[in-house]
Design brief:
single chain; 383 residues; alpha/beta; 2 domains; 7-stranded mixed sheet; 6-stranded parallel sheet; 19 strands; 23% helix; globular
């Protein structure tokens, strides 16, 4: 089958790989019909996530048709269309029983940090990802959600990750009616966090990015947001304070992570240094929040050496919340938002490529070419 294959830092290829097989009675084999490239995949591509091994297949946002069914699978049958959460969760452990499927105890033998995930290095279990013609899905009675017959895969594709991630980010901010929320980053997760903040009662949503077309996309996707282009702003934190009566925002959400652009630099041993895995966005969030405010982190920080001024957060009395999204718990409610037209998730798709052209798709997405917001890959059988 065709699948993406990581070939080392900065290199991705599409290659022929062996088809997956049933390895456990509760597995299914999914014929992928749609899969996406996530900003988190770029962290892998750039070598910022530990233990990303040559030859692995990326991809944790995918939907498709059940092709094979393990003997103990009770909820799915061959031919069912499903969308799959990026979390791999057993459904029975201490964490899964509390809805914390991103922290599953049984899906990741390689780490005590968190649960398993598709296509995201051996730190999350070493599972092959969905940027392929077929993928093995463990714990198939727990994760996958059937796609309603009257909906297309692209309608619900982003229930796999970025829509629940953005929604959970806003929820973790504990937004009170009328509060001001700042979202750092107008990529796909940022767009959904902005939309979710409005749906959860924010009075103002201010978004920060450096690309004009992404700021324009934000204003179209969530009418009423205010924008800051940090290329045109000498001091982002000061600009946010000016917009908030000098206090700062009630809630700040970092949707960027460890490859943030910007001019924040850490002082270390008397020297100015910008570490690989820049913590610019989370530092801006800490500095931009009002005293007693909430800061939410959903951007991926792979390297362990990010330098963050945690003392400022403590002195300001901030509440910091962060998590990999517990996708499964949000899928039913967000499906209803999509059905009702409150969230047009598929509208953020700017580019579609055949799976065979995944290398080009990564190039376009990574370099923000052609006003790229979100790339979807289409395997040959689904074309």
């Amino acid at each position: 089958m065709l699948a993406t294959s990581y070939r080392g830092k900065g290199r991705i290829r599409v290659e022929q790989k062996p088809e997956p097989r049933i390895e456990h009675p509760n597995d299914i084999i999914l014929r992928v019909t749609r899969t996406a490239i996530c900003g988190s995949d770029l962290h892998l591509l750039h070598g910022l996530v530990p233990d990303t091994r040559v030859g692995c297949t990326f991809g944790h946002e995918f939907a498709g048709v059940v092709d094979e069914v393990g003997p103990s699978v009770a909820s799915l049958a061959r031919g069912d269309r499903v969308v799959v959460p990026f979390n791999i969760a057993c459904g029975t452990c201490f964490y899964c029983q509390r809805g914390l499927t991103g922290c599953c105890d049984n899906s990741n033998p390689c780490s005590t940090i968190g649960g398993g995930a598709f296509g995201y290095s051996h730190t999350t279990g070493g599972y092959e990802g969905g940027q392929a013609e077929r993928v093995r899905v463990p714990f198939a009675d727990i994760g996958p959600m059937k796609i309603p017959d009257d909906m297309h895969e692209e309608d619900v594709l982003f229930l796999s990750d970025i829509l629940p991630t953005g929604y959970q980010a806003a929820e973790m901010g504990a937004i009170k009616p009328g509060e001001t929320v700042v979202v750092f980053g107008c990529g796909p997760v940022g767009l959904f966090a902005q939309k979710a903040a409005m749906l959860q009662g924010a009075g103002r949503v201010i978004v920060v990015d450096q690309l004009g077309y992404r700021l324009e996309t934000a204003m179209t996707f969530t009418p009423g947001v205010e924008t800051i282009d940090f290329r045109q702003t000498k001091d982002v934190v000061a600009a946010i304070r000016r917009l908030t009566d000098g206090r700062g925002a009630d809630v700040c959400i970092d949707c960027v992570g460890c490859e943030a652009q910007g001019n924040f630099m850490h002082t270390l041993l008397g020297k100015l240094m910008l570490e690989a895995g820049s913590a610019t966005a989370i530092q801006w969030a800490i500095d931009s929040a009002r005293r007693g405010g909430n800061v939410v982190l959903v951007g991926v920080y792979g390297p362990p050496f990010n330098l963050v001024n945690i003392g400022t957060a403590m002195n300001k009395g901030l509440t910091l919340r962060m998590a990999q999204c517990n996708v499964k718990r949000y899928m039913p409610a967000l499906l209803e938002h999509i059905r009702a037209g409150r969230i047009d998730a598929k509208s953020i798709i700017s580019h579609r490529f055949p799976l065979e052209e995944a290398e080009l798709a990564y190039h376009v997405f990574d370099n923000k070419l052609d006003d790229c917001v979100k790339c979807v890959l289409i395997p040959p059988e689904a074309a």
